[in-house]
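Renewal narrative, Specific Aim 1. Our central claim is that a sequence can be written position by position from structural information alone. The example that follows is taken directly from our test logs and has not been curated for this report. It begins with the structure tokens describing the chain, in the order in which they were read.
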């Protein structure tokens, strides 16, 4: 399939934008002006002003002499480029690749798109109508090359559709300026009597390059399709992406869910064939009013399970507001990783961290309560309890050491030990009573002590003697005495954790 491009020319881009905000300017001679070298110069003029001989580049004083009732507004620096970016983003509904073409154009790579709209003619007509409805006066052309489409849109007053393979013939009768050349080069060609592309297109290329320079040859080759022209899309191209245009705008939640399900099935089928799985998915809905609705999900493992991914999206679909209707749905997977089916072992039971059901459960919980509320910890190579564990970076992280199993450790470890009041016999007996947060606990059973020394290479400090204590209610605690017991009672008692 050959490449096809559309060039959109906004003849009155900035003045149209001002007219949308002040409709009364539409039928009046109206210009934008800016200061340049101490003079006010016209930077843009609407069609009515041009009909009276007023054009961009003219001094504002001269324009007012021609038409005293001229309406003037101050131009805004960077306005044209901002408008082009915004409109190019809106054009994503017609093609995934849209780029700005300053100062007054947009380029669309529409390869393989026109047939979805019933052919080139209906495709161009729909784009032009939609832009006209948004208040912009535009002219469009479609051709095999960007250069040809650009030239036809601006200099051809006949058909704006160049059939595939006919772009060279379409350029022949156009002036040299249609090749996007510098003003100096165009003037030199005109002085030589070369007023049409047909008059020099057959000349030897070395002669043309020697006479008019490398830029001239680059533009000529690009227009003829002999040199590729790269455009920079306003939105990065996501390799794993699916689009679903709607014949009629979708306004119901059921319709949105059906669209998402269809896109997920198509995308996941492709991922399975390529042994890939997505980690992040973005679902976008382009509304009729030009606004975009978007929801996204993430997974702990690469996934191509359409049913699981649909459930992750379900909790967020209610946030999509269709308003007057959504005309295009796009599903993107910006983060994709290799995904291979895990080989099952007949002699071992299912479960563990490798069980996909665990990953899917975590994905669904994260969608409801947030990923920050779910944590996995792995052992760290330290004796001091506060340093003996660390958060895992992922569900797949393999710890460098194993858990301490010789002595029990509490399920809930306080980030910082908390002071308690203790009644204990001497010298190394477990406590009999302790008071924590105003409540008195009578200890029925206890075990210990387990001495844990401070890690001197980190900091100096006293050792801890830990006890496992159970109170009258059957609740178990991890208590410790800091330092040696002495008659002066300089030691202190702390609670550090809770057992189930």
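The sequence written for that structure reads:
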């Amino acid at each position: 399939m050959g490449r096809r491009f559309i060039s959109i020319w906004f003849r009155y881009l900035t003045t149209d934008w001002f007219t949308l905000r002040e409709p009364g300017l539409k039928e009046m001679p109206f210009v934008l002006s800016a200061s340049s070298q101490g003079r006010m110069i016209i930077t843009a003029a609407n069609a009515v002003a041009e009909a009276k001989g007023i054009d961009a580049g003219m001094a504002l004083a001269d324009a007012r002499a021609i038409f005293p009732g001229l309406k003037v507004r101050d131009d805004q620096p960077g306005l044209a480029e901002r408008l082009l970016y915004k409109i190019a983003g809106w054009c994503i509904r017609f093609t995934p690749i849209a780029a700005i073409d300053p100062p007054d154009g947009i380029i669309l790579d529409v390869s393989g798109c026109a047939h979805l709209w019933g052919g080139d003619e209906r495709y161009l007509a729909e784009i032009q109508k939609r832009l006209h409805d948004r208040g912009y006066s535009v002219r469009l052309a479609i051709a095999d090359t960007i250069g040809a489409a650009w030239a036809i849109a601006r200099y051809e007053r006949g058909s704006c559709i160049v059939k595939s393979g006919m772009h060279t013939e379409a350029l022949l009768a156009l002036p040299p300026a249609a090749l996007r050349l510098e003003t100096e080069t165009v003037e030199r060609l005109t002085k030589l009597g070369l007023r049409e592309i047909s008059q020099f297109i057959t000349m030897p290329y070395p002669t043309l390059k020697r006479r008019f320079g490398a830029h001239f040859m680059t533009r000529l080759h690009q227009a003829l399709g002999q040199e590729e022209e790269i455009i920079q899309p306003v939105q990065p191209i996501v390799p794993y992406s699916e689009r679903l245009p709607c014949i009629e705008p979708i306004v119901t939640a059921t319709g949105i869910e059906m669209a998402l399900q269809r896109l997920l099935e198509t995308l996941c089928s492709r991922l399975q064939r390529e042994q890939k799985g997505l980690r992040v998915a973005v679902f976008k809905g382009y509304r009729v009013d030009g606004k975009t609705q978007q929801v996204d999900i993430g997974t702990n493992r690469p996934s191509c399970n359409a049913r699981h991914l649909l459930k992750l999206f379900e909790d967020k679909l209610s946030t999509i507001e269709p308003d007057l209707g959504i005309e295009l749905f796009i599903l993107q997977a910006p983060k994709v990783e290799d995904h291979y089916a895990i080989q099952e072992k007949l002699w071992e039971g299912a479960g563990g961290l490798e069980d996909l059901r665990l990953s899917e459960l975590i994905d669904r919980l994260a969608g409801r309560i947030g990923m920050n509320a779910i944590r996995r910890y792995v052992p760290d190579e330290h004796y001091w309890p506060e340093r003996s564990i660390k958060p895992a970076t992922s569900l797949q992280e393999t710890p460098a050491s194993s858990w301490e199993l010789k002595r029990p450790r509490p399920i809930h470890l306080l980030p910082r030990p908390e002071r308690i009041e203790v009644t204990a016999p001497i010298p190394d007996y477990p406590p009999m009573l302790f008071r924590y947060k105003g409540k008195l606990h009578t200890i029925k059973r206890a075990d210990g002590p387990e001495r844990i020394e401070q890690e001197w290479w980190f900091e100096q400090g006293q050792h801890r003697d830990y006890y496992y204590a159970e109170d009258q209610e059957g609740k178990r605690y991890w208590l410790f005495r800091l330092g040696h017991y002495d008659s002066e009672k300089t030691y202190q008692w702390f609670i550090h954790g809770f057992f189930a």
